[in-house]
Design brief:
The complex is a heterodimer of chains A (about 375) and B (about 500). Chain A is about 75% helix and about 0% strand. In chain A, α6 packs antiparallel against α15. The two termini of chain A are about 20 Å apart. Chain A has a single domain, classed as Amino acid/polyamine transporter I (Up-down Bundle). Chain A is built from 16 helices and no strands. Chain B has 3 domains: about 110 residues, no CATH class; about 120 residues, no CATH class; about 170 residues, no CATH class. In chain B, the strands form 3 sheets. A 5-stranded antiparallel beta sheet of chain B has the order 1-2-4-5-3, sandwiched between helices. In chain B, strands 6-7-9-10-8 form a 5-stranded antiparallel beta sheet, with helices on both faces. A two-stranded antiparallel ribbon of chain B has the order 11-12. Chain B is elongated, with a radius of gyration of 30 Å. In chain B, about 35% of the residues are buried. Classes of the chains: A mainly alpha (about 375), B alpha+beta (about 500). At the A-B interface, α6, α7 and α14 of A face α14 of B.
């Protein structure tokens, strides 16, 4: 089953840092504060820390499976559950990946519609973005990684903007620490983990990495960087906003950008939203790359054709989601599924895979 | 095959027929010399050979003594490449390249061919396109022998290898591939040779035609091989491990593989100290981004995002635009087109008239356009600066690319404001990511990120720190010189 990938298509292990971080850092950081603060208020930075640690654990599980298997999600599934059930499970995961890509695309377009162009139609902009996705993915995994890399490096200046609201913040807002019950914190983790989702695509691109075993530390570093960045954003948000007000703001990060004033620029959030087009592009690209790659492997189809069909489906679904309520509903459902896939399914697969491995050794 | 074997007489007749055919051309000379000790026949293209050589170095020797065989003549002539042949194809080729044909009898099958071609080339002059104040001022000319001589003079080593090709069914252009054995990666050389061998084209008039034909992506706006007229640049990149293509009849050499940063490097950068060259390079990178982005940003901001601009700046902008009846995009396109017209007119006109056009265009049209209320002062400044900035690129072709890139950015800026600029930028980024030069990634050292190669990209670190050759050339010998010796630090007063 294992298909060797030619050397010229592989990428260096340290680029996994950018693949992991770039995938996690998407539309989430613009809006994740409210979902967490709903439950734990000013302790919202604790769930982020905990989620970061949990995700480290999940990355470790993922690499334990991958290092043993030397394949990807499809081969792991097939080896654990047999060909038919395995392929069915892979297909379900791919469906989830597609659903998630619609979430990212639609959420970003919604932000654009709310903050920049209220009259912007969804379909022309989605069409152009998806066309660029096709252009990237048809260039192969190296191009996808390149977009990931540039999407982390080029908008890196935005990290500096998170420091600007500090002068208007009051960090006594964060006191007293540990003011909420463990139960509340556990509930809020659900919201936090979704902001960390994106590391799981390692299950798809693992065979495309040179000396893939050595990339594990880079995956962990990428996650660590994301955790630190989220902590920074969260702490600044908590210091900047009043608790009651934070409950009502959908995009707190964008609100914080409003405070930035330069001699030649006001209303920095417009520049932020524009830059975010580059930030969220690689996420959609890698999602479509993974989905089309998985289908290609399972059904032996041409990836180019699969990709075109998937993009078309995505375009149609994102155009169906018209108003705020439907988008919110859709996002909640996909988020729910995503949470269970990340938190229950990956550990479950990990255990199944190892039991299966042990059994096979005995025989 | 035996039944198709041509009789000997027919072949003989063919040579006669060939000469008779050539006699149709007015410049073909064919004469008999019966007075000399041995009667002989001479044939050549009068316009291809150097008559001086014929009169000084060939005819006197023929007239001196009586020869009976062609070998005797060959021994007597003071040339190293005298050919005795009866191969019709060879005779034909050699005559057209400027050989003199000598026969003892007009019906003989065999003949002697002596190369006496006219070597006329322009004098080596100073570079026009890549002029630099410091450094050598020696530019290539249209003769490949002169150009090879200029390169070899700077690299007197036996490892410098020249592979020759003849390309073009009509032009039969000599093309030479240069590389240094033991340094240059063979894959790069093979890629170039392979592509040159596969070329199907009738006429190679200049190296730029070769550059277009062997480019990785023929539809890209970006030059995938750098062309240069400086012999020092060629010698420099050869020593780094690049492959160079020289084309006969072209005063530009092609360098490959290149990365996008190579387009921001003037070779002059190596002749000034590293702080200065680093600063200049950063200025060029800034100039290019400025040139592409500034007009689209103006259009985007004034069409959609006027909230972006602080109040005080807004007053300046509004007051300059108060009487303009046109939307920003039309205003911008009119001015951009004016600049393009000026540039194109300047390029077509002889240089002295060109200057006048520059003054007329720049001052008269510019001021008049503002006075007439067609464009705003601010935009005039912006467009002029952007045009100026596009001329800072050291590689001439790159400047054209930048000026053309501005238009899709402008149109998208008018469509979706800043977001349109972001979309255009995304497409540009993807295009650069996918582009290769001779199979090597074009965006290197940015992606794939190779921190070692940053030493000679946006900045240029001092030579003592440049002990290795660029990684992206994948050279066989990555070490340029011993770093330890170069960086030995002497103690105080020692």
């Amino acid at each position: 089953m294992k298909t060797a990938i030619k050397d010229q298509f592989l990428v260096s292990p340290f680029l996994v840092f950018f693949l992991v971080h770039g995938m996690q850092y998407g539309v989430g950081p613009l809006s994740f504060q409210r979902d967490i603060a709903n439950y734990v208020g000013h302790d919202a930075w604790i769930p982020i820390l905990i989620s970061g640690i949990i995700v480290h654990l999940l990355i470790w599980m993922m690499y334990m499976m991958l290092n043993k298997d030397k394949g990807d999600l499809m081969t792991i599934h097939q080896r654990t559950f047999g060909k038919w059930l395995g392929n069915l499970l892979s297909l379900l995961i791919i469906l989830y990946v597609l659903a998630e890509s619609v979430t990212v695309l639609r959420s970003y377009i919604e932000i654009v519609q709310v903050w920049m162009f209220p009259l912007l139609k969804t379909w022309p902009f989605a069409l152009v973005l998806l066309f660029s996705v096709y252009y990237v993915v048809s260039g192969g995994f190296r191009t996808v990684t390149g977009v990931c890399f540039l999407a982390v490096v080029l908008p890196a200046y935005l990290i500096l903007t998170f420091f600007v609201p500090i002068q208007f913040s009051d960090f006594r807002n964060l006191l007293p620490v540990f003011d909420h019950s463990l139960f509340d914190i556990a509930k809020s983790i659900k919201g936090a983990v979704l902001a960390f989702s994106g590391f799981e695509y390692g299950l798809f691109y693992y065979p495309f990495i040179k000396q893939p075993e050595s990339s594990q530390k880079w995956a962990h570093l990428g996650n660590l960087f994301t955790t630190c960045l989220y902590l920074l954003i969260m702490i600044v948000t908590l210091g900047f906003f009043d608790q009651g007000y934070l409950q009502k703001v959908i995009w707190p990060t964008l609100m914080m950008w409003k405070i930035i004033k330069l001699p030649f620029v006001e209303r920095f959030e417009i520049i932020g939203v524009t830059s975010w087009a580059v930030v969220m592009l690689p996420i959609i690209c890698l999602m479509f790359w993974s989905a089309s790659r998985g289908i290609k492997e399972m059904f032996k189809l041409k990836q180019r054709n699969v990709l075109a069909v998937l993009l078309f489906l995505c375009l149609i679904v994102s155009c169906i989601l018209i108003d705020r309520e439907t988008i919110e509903q859709y996002n909640t459902i996909v988020g729910e599924i995503g949470f269970w896939i990340l938190f229950a399914y990956i550990p479950f697969l990990f255990i199944c895979y190892h039991i299966r491995f042990k059994m096979r050794k005995k025989i | 095959m035996w039944f198709r074997k041509q009789p000997a007489e027919q072949q003989e007749n063919n040579l006669v027929a060939l000469i008779n055919m050539y006699k149709k051309s007015g410049d073909f000379v064919h004469f008999h010399h019966p007075q000399s000790p041995l009667p002989y026949w001479v044939a050549y293209f009068g316009t291809l050979i150097d008559v001086e050589i014929l009169h000084r170095d060939i005819l006197p020797y023929l007239n001196k003594s009586a020869f009976t065989t062609l070998e005797e003549i060959k021994a007597a002539l003071p040339f190293e490449d005298v050919l005795i042949t009866s191969d019709l194809q060879q005779i034909q080729d050699q005559l057209l390249l400027g050989s003199v044909l000598i026969q003892l009898d007009v019906n003989d099958r065999a003949c002697i061919l002596v190369r006496a071609e006219m070597k006329k080339a322009r004098e080596v002059t100073i570079p026009e396109e890549e002029y630099s104040v410091v450094g050598p001022k020696e530019a290539f000319v249209e003769s490949i022998t002169t150009n090879l001589n200029l390169v070899r003079k700077r690299l007197p080593i036996s490892e410098l290898t020249v592979k020759e090709f003849t390309i073009g069914t009509l032009s039969k252009t000599k093309v030479a591939v240069l590389f240094i054995e033991g340094i240059t990666n063979e894959d790069n050389v093979n890629t170039v040779c392979q592509r040159l061998n596969d070329l199907q084209f009738n006429q190679i008039l200049d190296s730029s035609i070769i550059a277009q034909l062997i480019a990785d992506n023929g539809h890209s706006l970006f030059p995938q091989l750098i062309d240069t007229e400086r012999s020092d640049r060629v010698a420099g990149v050869l020593a780094e491990g690049s492959v160079v293509i020289l084309v006969d009849g072209s005063s530009h050499a092609l360098i490959g593989p290149i990365s996008v940063m190579g387009l921001f490097n003037a070779f002059e950068d190596y002749y000034v100290n590293w702080q200065m060259s680093s600063a200049f390079r950063l200025i060029r990178v800034f100039a290019v981004s400025f040139s592409i982005l500034v007009t689209p940003i103006y259009v985007a901001v004034l069409t959609y995002h006027y909230q972006l601009i602080p109040k005080d700046l807004m007053v300046t902008l509004v007051s300059s635009r108060r009487n303009i009846p046109l939307p920003p995009i039309l205003e911008a396109i009119i001015l951009e087109l004016t600049i393009e017209l000026l540039r194109e007119a300047g390029a077509r006109l002889p240089s002295k008239v060109g200057q006048t056009i520059g003054i007329v265009g720049g001052i008269v049209i510019g001021t008049a356009a503002v006075d007439a209320g067609l464009t705003s002062n601010v935009l005039l400044i912006i467009v002029a600066l952007a045009a100026l900035a596009s001329f800072t690129t050291p590689v001439y072709r790159m400047g054209n690319t930048i000026r053309l890139l501005r238009f899709p950015f402008l149109l998208l800026a008018d469509l979706w404001g800043l977001l349109g600029i972001a979309v255009a930028f995304i497409f540009l980024m993807i295009h650069l990511l996918r582009l290769t030069s001779l199979g090597r990634p074009y965006l290197e050292p940015i992606y794939p990120p190779r921190f070692k190669d940053l030493k000679d990209s946006f900045i240029r670190v001092p030579f003592s720190l440049q002990s290795t050759r660029p990684v992206f050339l994948q050279t066989k010998d990555p070490q340029r010189f011993s770093k330890q010796k170069a960086s030995e630090v002497k103690d105080i007063d020692e």
